[in-house]
Amino acid sequence: MLYPSPIGTLSLVADKQYLYGIWVQDQTHFEKGLGDETIEEVTSHPVLEQVISYLDTYFEGSVQDLSDLPLAPIGTDFEKRVWAYLQTIPYGQTVTYGQIAKDLQVASAQAIGRAVGRNPWSILVPCHRVLGSGNRLTGYASGVEKKAWLLQHEGVAFQENKKKEKKMLEFIEYPKCSTCKKAKNELDKLGLEYQDVHIVEETPSEDVILKWLETSGFEVKQFFNTSGIKYRELGLRDKVGSLSKQEAAKLLASDGMLLKRPILVENGAVKQIGYRKPYENLGLR
């Protein structure tokens, strides 16, 4: 069933007992796990009529009890833990990825970020209430502008990412990485302003990475963290060379730990991957 909302058309999918998903059309992970043959379009449905009532109330700006939301028993055990946590975040409040990891006693913020991103019940299981460090607005499966709308609708204060000016630098890093620390130290010594992006909590989208692959002049393999554990676990050493740019972008966007770090980006264009050469010779200002 389709539901017209202020942030776009929502696709609602349910069976006779459970709600399987609420997706903004064409978002990342749209109707993931559902085959076309399993979906039948309907104009009325007991479960979906209840969900529509909840959505109507939400968009009217009212707080409501969603404890009886008939969510389907899907997802891994870990994803279920994270999604259950999301349901406890009150209307008009936010938490950070780091706080969720701490509360759930999970060492990997990367794993938290992936589980949040795969939440199939947009809005009513409020993954939009999860922000980056410093309450910064971060990625959202259907686009950060929709996430911003939802938070503003709830009256939430958040830190918007800096708008691109004449020269906008993004330093994409993993904070615990010693090489990233050295590179950041040079940027600070050069007196350059930059936006710090957590490579795991704020992994660049597939579209962004594909643009890098197509325009940067760097080879596909240079974007991969070839010394990383994930790279070895997936056996990518013998596979990367045969990946298309589209396939590589999709794979890199699925896990920030696959990306070589740090990545220095100026106005959307990749200036350097890794830190084998100092930044002072890149003509940055």
UniProtKB/TrEMBL annotation:
Q: Does the keyword DNA damage apply?
A: yes
* Domain named Methylguanine DNA methyltransferase ribonuclease-like: residues: 2-73
Keyword vocabulary terms for this entry: Cytoplasm, Disulfide bond, DNA damage, DNA repair, Methyltransferase, Redox-active center, Transferase
What positions does UniProt annotate as the active site of this protein? C127 (nucleophile)
Q: What is its main location?
A: cytoplasm
Gene3D superfamilies linked to this entry: Glutaredoxin, Methylated DNA-protein cysteine methyltransferase domain, Winged helix-like DNA-binding domain superfamily/Winged helix DNA-binding domain
Pfam assignment, any one: DNA_binding_1
| Lineage top rank: taxon | Bacteria
A biological process term (GO) from this entry: methylation
Show the stretches that span the lipid bilayer.
none
| Catalytic activity, EC | 2.1.1.63
Q: Does the keyword DNA damage apply?
A: yes
Q: Which reaction equations make up its catalytic activity?
A: a 6-O-methyl-2'-deoxyguanosine in DNA + L-cysteinyl-[protein] = S-methyl-L-cysteinyl-[protein] + a 2'-deoxyguanosine in DNA; a 4-O-methyl-thymidine in DNA + L-cysteinyl-[protein] = a thymidine in DNA + S-methyl-L-cysteinyl-[protein]
HAMAP family, from UniProt?
OGT (MF_00772)
Annotated family: Belongs to the ArsC family. Belongs to the MGMT family.
Which protein, by its recorded name, is this?
Methylated-DNA--protein-cysteine methyltransferase
Which species does this protein come from?
Streptococcus oralis
